[in-house]
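Q: Can I borrow your eye for a moment on a structure tokenisation matter? Would you mind producing a protein record, from residues through to fold? Write it directly below this note and I will take it from there.
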Amino acid sequence: MIDTDDVDAGSAFDHFRDGLSRAQVPMDIRCATPGEFHARHRSVDLGGVSTASVLWRPGRYEVARTSALISRSDPGVYRVLLNLSGTSEFLHQGRHATLGAGEMALFDTSAPFFGRRAPGADRTGRSIMLTLPHTALPLPPRTVRTALGAVLPSRSGTGGLVRGLLQEIDVRAGAGEIAAAHRLSAALLDVLVVHLAECSGTTSPAVRESGERTTWLRVRAFVAERLGDPGLSPECVAAAHHMSVRTLQRLFSHHNTTVAGWIRAQRLERCRHDLLDPHTAATSVRAIAHHWGFSDQAHFTRAFRTAYGMTPLQCRPAAGADGQRVGAQTQEFSPPPGEE
């Protein structure tokens, strides 16, 4: 962690500059108003790859990875930069790119690059970086070269998945959930391989293998966003991903489940989470079930009891010995006769 708040304001910029110059990928920075500069750089090693979160304010600063710095330390890594707020302008491999909020780019730290970063309207800038070995991308060199220093698509498709995973990794790493962040980083590398291949039109066995894993992630994300839709079905999931239901079922079979089984399990888990959440104590079981796509009350109760060994009412923290919530209306979602 490099944090200018750890030192007095007069030496804050020098403290930050010195920290970056001694990092695994040394860089130099310049700032026209060093006396006003504040920044925090948090880096977390995830085993093979690392993630970093950078926040700065209030003014512009410039960053450079020069030939001299490369000669001093060249670990042979790429860096993915996701710009969250403010703007980041870079010159790398003969390309000029300006990243706005939510945009990203790929850099080869074995080659020089120069950048200028400016905060957003709130006078604060923030970005996330993922650093990975060259060997982590099993792609032809020309495929990677076509992406270096360019703005990569990040609004939808595989680009949207890359962006979402980067942000989730940052959240988990910041919370100290290193194992979870490490697992997500493995998924991110698969998606990144496919994304770069799509951008360049490249195909290979490694890309196809990563493609199947990426499709699995994409389908799961699609289902998670639509769990509250009672009409969510294998047919609509397959159609949304331009594949047959048979192909979709085969994908799920590789993970020892079915499409319908996965949807049901995810809905039940969301219901269980809400039933256990004190913040939803005033929400009826009926409303929770309906919110997560269960339109048939009896079916929901049977499925919940099969999955968790108790009825939805018994799952609530304030449930009494008879399975009723203390002080609650007892008829709100009672199982039908014979279902207890």
